[in-house]
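Notebook, bench 3.
Goal today: get a predicted structure for Bile acid:sodium symporter from Chromobacterium violaceum so we can plan the truncation constructs. The sequence was checked against the plasmid map this morning, with no discrepancies at the termini. Length recorded as 323 residues. Pasting the sequence as submitted so the record is complete.
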Amino acid sequence: MPKLLDSFTAALLATVALASLLPCYGPAAQIFNLATNLAIGLLFFLHGAKLSREAVIAGAGHWRLHLTVLACTFALFPLLGLLLKPALTPLVTPELYLGVLYLCMLPSTVQSSIAFTSMAQGNVPAAICSATASNLLGIFITPLLTGWLVAGHAGGAQNMGSALDIVYQLLLPFIAGQIARRWIGGWVDKHKALLKYVDQGSILMVVYTAFSAAVISGLWRQTPPSALAGLLAVNAILLGLLLAITSLAGRKLGFSREDRITILFCGSKKSLASGVPMAKVLFAGHAIGAIVLPLMLFHQIQLMVCAMLAQRFRQRQLAEARA
């Protein structure tokens, strides 16, 4: 189970602090950007190599649940981001709310969605399938939504160039990993703990380069403490609404308790692992520190809240079993 305050969160905070105090620029930034691009390619190659077809097939038949999760992830979330914009924009800067809109268009998490579903004794095979499908479809849907819904905001609109970059940097390595799975799949499955460091390391590299560029362009001078406090409130409001809606939708649509748990945890979360690398591609040429800051905060809030919810579900199940 993901911890409330884990070592990766501490590493993220340390990386932001390092970029704020010692940002990279000039030739060093170019070299670091190249290394970051290579790390992102390796990340998606390994994601393709470790994807088990058997796990996907096991939960693929539960199409009503999967459609519900995908609707929450790629329709309800962006819709709320747009509808709440007039009310929430005064709490943050325009650049930060652009990051909030981008957050709303991202796919669900994989590891933590499955972990929380398992802890809460939900439908784990369906969670594996839904979370995996969300991330696969997100490679296509997130760039399209970004280009459509945030067009004209800070030059963040998607164009053909950024679409091709997504294919080259993310999709092709993923496909190559799927093809290579027949030869390296066993090794990948045995070294998942080692692969976690590739996953997290690539995110830290992107965060460092992103925040270095943002600091140089004046991110902290342009982001008052009140805007950071407002961003926490905006993220909490979004997560609270999605948790409430997914819980209600599961009941209204007649899903079992196990399926409702899966919908709750898979339909209300957003992927830091996919979102940060995608931001680097979609917002290329722009300082993306303000774009990924809402996602970084949302990531930690969702872990803390969902960990408490999963623990409550588990305790309730145990209490009912003893009764």
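The chain has 15 helices and no strands. The mean pLDDT is 82.
Flagging this for group meeting.
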